[in-house]
């Protein structure tokens, strides 16, 4: 036992990488915590109990080999730990940064149940792959022999990029089409730098470009080409657009100047971080500086908006959410970070209307809420608490109520593309093929707004399915010839 580097959770306390002081980090978009130094990472990895049924792996959508790479890390075998981590995930250092580990691997850690505090899995995962990049262990994509078939991937978010990488590894010619001028989707333009610094994403994209994957950036399907035209150019197509249509709050004053969707606000901020010209930011419309800001919503996007507004120099930042803290969907760690940085949460509150002057918002009229009986999901449903109205001053209101699918059949001139009543693309549960032969779909456009790690999992699954279908197609064409 003395020589065993594991099972140290009784004598070693849980310790995350130190966060920078709130007053310091609230003025920049750098990530809030540094990565571990090697001894600290090895110590924390050594807390793993190496349990027979690793609930951390079971509850990871990618089923990462977490106990195995924790043991390798504890033994100082970092390159092997990286190779094992990389075997199941195309973006381990990104998942280590932005996965809600408190709801997934760490939240299901056996030693967490025993009262010793979970192993800091996400921070170790980030450390392993950051070390691999620094040491030059991250190798180019191993491209297989050319197959003479090509694939179109529509959407350069995590699902699309994962599929592109894996299919390129099989030797397919891969073209990625994306409406933005940089690849990465929400990783690039939706998630702020204090959670995911952009060079971390860009180096992944550059690795794919070096593998020969062709990126068509600034390409809008439906305008630059129809779906049918892409089908005619390629042997198979993947739809991995994500969901970008902002959900609306149906109250008066919704169209007032200063009432903006969350993604517009976050995209403008991230573009400024890249040094882009952003007219709506430069005019002040999407800049929180000097303003009283109210964010409506309780998910991770709402937390991103709250913390971005603080960094832009808002005079005050409040977040309104219709349930209480215990019932919010966002990460509790993110709430704690936001409170440390100066945000105020107004729990059990919902907007009744946006009131303004000369067409510009000046206040939010809201009602107090209370939690009633559980709804269909099992969460207690919010209901209006009579007599609890209040008015809060606001120069900028950011709506962060989630995202729905766009109307792809109409946008793309593809009425035969099957979609659900929510607009998500319908697929065969086994093959992930849509109603159109050779057209597949994966990620949020199938499952609805979800986690990055699920998009990576879907990309991995659909790549395997597309590979099988393309091989069968090649065999059939060879027989027919």
UniProtKB/TrEMBL annotation:
One Pfam short name: Pyr_redox_2
Dihydroprymidine dehydrogenase domain location: 25-136
EC main group: oxidoreductase
Keyword 4Fe-4S: yes
Record-annotated FAD/NAD(P)-binding domain positions: 150-459
Residues annotated as signal peptide: none
Molecular function per GO: 4 iron, 4 sulfur cluster binding; glutamate synthase (NADH) activity; glutamate synthase (NADPH) activity; metal ion binding
E.C. code: 1.4.1.13, 1.4.1.14
Top-rank lineage group of the source organism: Bacteria
Gene3D superfamilies in the record: Alpha-helical ferredoxin (1.10.1060.10), FAD/NAD(P)-binding domain (3.50.50.60)
Keywords recorded for this protein, A-Z: 4Fe-4S, Iron, Iron-sulfur, Metal-binding, Oxidoreductase
Keyword NADP: no
Entry-linked InterPro entries: DPD_II (IPR028261), FAD/NAD-bd_sf (IPR036188), FAD/NAD-binding_dom (IPR023753), GltD-like (IPR006006), Helical_ferredxn (IPR009051)
UniProt cross-references to PANTHER family, sorted A to Z: GLUTAMATE SYNTHASE [NADPH] SMALL CHAIN, GLUTAMATE SYNTHASE [NADPH] SMALL CHAIN-RELATED
Protein name as catalogued: Glutamate synthase (NADPH/NADH) small chain
Taxonomic source organism: Sphingomonas abaci
